[in-house]
Design brief:
428 residues; 15 strands; seven-stranded mixed β-sheet
């Protein structure tokens, strides 16, 4: 564990590293991130991950060898999500995705994928698949299930992938299941940052209908950087073998223990309250943006995600850069449609991290209004300074993880470490 003496020695011994720590700490504390993949891990999760358990690891010689800590983590995840099988051995969501692709597909197989999701992970000779896109209708920005069904019947994919990272609407997964069955395909749903809302039962779960469900234990769940695979029981053994065959032969006990405590925290009333606040804050953010005259796409939002159309004459990269100068971290992307000639440049925003830091609906409306007006501005020094002052006023006294989301009675020794780290960096 960190202590004051160690931190003081580190500052003297390695000032270069301390400068890097200061930059990272400054960025987290003094900015407000609306990037969907940004969020803070819970203090208890961080504490356990940084504990002496990191000195030990779980070795694996076969897919059948599962340690007690891994069993606890997998059992808790399966319980929280109502899954038949949970695999927690992959180090991140990308690794989990590659495992699923290699386990379920053969080279040359056809994959019908929402916005071509997961095709970006197909690198290497053994991952040569034929990806076919389905996307929202360009007219109403909704999925046309009748057209999707016809496409699936025409091409007979081996796998249908649905990953709503750019879609703030909660679709009826049973419709996707029915389409997959009709086409003779397996169904894989990647939850992305919606995992926490599903765990808290605030939005519908795909687990009863999908063959495989994946997500990261971070961002929406406040856990460690770890990939999770949920699956029907008949796929479990093959997926576990693929995990081992692709190099996931050992695990750090601290990561597994961190994941296990995260699942315990998710079952608390405080996490349920957090998930409710995430939904409320997303709607407030969207309302503020609309008040500023911005176009919100696929609206109204039904989860943590808010999509904002980038005005004509503006480009996402410039907005990202100027917003960061003003203390707002945002992500620009492109919203695909079923017509390859039509797409929409967007900002992909989330209420996850601001909610973790304790912002409420009134705050998020202000954030939306401020960002909306900034998007339409000329990005002058005055415009940037005005937004920076608003962000500073909002964030300067905010924690990275608000105590209101801590389960009742939880003792958090990491809080002291954070204070010591701040003192070491700033010389307090």
């Amino acid at each position: 564990m960190l202590n004051k003496k160690f931190l003081s020695q580190l500052k003297l011994f390695d000032p270069e590293l301390c400068d890097a720590l200061k930059f990272s700490f400054d960025r987290q504390i003094s900015t407000l991130s609306l990037i969907p993949t940004d969020n803070a891990a819970s203090p208890m999760s961080q504490y356990i991950k940084g504990s002496e358990l990191g000195n030990d690891f779980i070795g694996h010689n076969s897919a059948e060898h599962i340690s007690r800590i891994e069993q606890i983590a997998a059992k808790r995840i399966a319980k929280v999500f109502g899954a038949e099988t949970a695999i927690v051995r992959t180090g991140n969501a990308v690794a989990a995705s590659r495992v699923v692709l290699m386990a379920l597909l053969s080279p040359g197989d056809t994959v019908l994928s929402f916005n071509l999701r997961k095709s970006e992970h197909c690198t290497g000779g053994q991952m040569n698949y034929n990806f076919v896109k389905f996307a929202v209708n360009p007219d109403d920005l909704r999925i046309d299930f009748a057209a999707l069904r016809q496409t699936a019947l025409d091409i007979h994919p081996a796998l249908i992938i649905y990953s709503p990272v750019n879609y703030p609407i909660n679709v009826d997964i049973k419709k996707l299941r029915d389409i997959a069955d009709a086409a003779g395909a397996m169904l894989w749903v990647d939850l992305g940052q919606n995992a926490g809302l599903v765990a808290a039962k605030k939005i519908p779960s795909p687990v009863p209908f999908a063959d495989v469900v994946t997500f990261s234990a971070s961002d929406g769940l406040h856990g460690p950087q770890n990939g999770v695979i949920l699956a029907k029981s008949h796929l479990g053994e093959h997926l576990r073998k693929t995990v081992i065959d692709t190099g996931h032969a050992s695990l750090k006990k601290n990561v597994m223990a961190s994941l296990a405590i995260t699942m315990r925290e998710i079952e608390s009333e405080e996490f349920e309250d957090y998930a409710t606040a995430v939904l409320d804050n997303a709607r407030a953010l969207e309302k503020g943006l609309k008040q500023a005259g911005c176009q919100t796409l696929c609206a109204p939002t039904q989860n943590h995600l808010v999509l904002v159309g980038i005005p004509a004459g503006k480009d996402g990269a410039t907005i990202e850069t100027k917003a960061e100068e003003a203390g707002l971290l945002i992500k620009s992307e492109t919203l695909m449609t079923s017509d390859d000639k039509i797409s929409y440049p967007i900002l992909r925003l989330s209420s996850l991290y601001p909610t973790t830091r304790s912002l409420n609906e009134e705050d998020m409306f202000t954030v939306g209004l401020t960002l909306g007006e900034f998007i339409k501005s000329n990005f002058t020094a005055h415009d940037i300074a005005a937004v920076k002052n608003i962000v500073k006023e909002m964030t300067e006294n905010l924690p990275l993880f608000s105590e209101e989301w801590l389960p009742e009675g939880e003792i958090v020794p990491q809080q002291d470490t954070d204070l010591m780290l701040k003192a070491m960096i700033y010389g307090m």
